[in-house]
Amino acid sequence: DAGITQSPRHKVTETGTPVTLRCHQTENHRYMYWYRQDPGHGLRLIHYSYGVKDTDKGEVSDGYSVSRSKTEDFLLTLESATSSQTSVYFCAISARRGTGELFFGEGSRLTVL
Amino acid sequence: QKEVEQNSGPLSVPEGAIASLNCTYSDRGSQSFFWYRQYSGKSPELIMFIYSNGDKEDGRFTAQLNKASQYVSLLIRDSQPSDSATYLCAVNGSSNTGKLIFGQGTTLQVKP
Question: Is the pLDDT of residue A1 over 80?
Fold first, then answer.
């Protein structure tokens, strides 16, 4: 257990509304990631962070923003949700500094109507 | 566009058999390679990683890497019904930031 919690775990919202997903970790890991998982596409990286206030884009970052004001929290925001952002969102931490040895949170299922 | 390709399956094997899962990748500069297992409705969990050419064994699992041919494979010996899951291959590029490129996953079914 890498001490990762995601909230909310399930959310239904309407097109055009803002949504924020939270990832909280308790073990002071530097690297954190947001992925989305969709049928036929596998897991795709949205954004990642390599420290407080240090973030960078992944392969599917359009329509998403992130913030990391504290080591333990990594927030993913959809400024104006669209139906194409209906997905399962996973937060992950890197167990060893910047390697691909990731531990994932339980996921947040978002439905945009 | 860096890609990781897997056969989506399902791959069906009888209990006790060897399951062989394969993955190819496009970025020749990739440095490290990972296999994650994902049960239905659950989050992915890391089961193997390999950084050097050759084989790496951990219990019933063996990861094989061939950088020249740009493929990585996972063998599961003595397959059990509890091994039934989707197996995700992931590749870390040359930047080694943990920014993984995942394949679509192969669904494995182990039949009693």
Answer: no
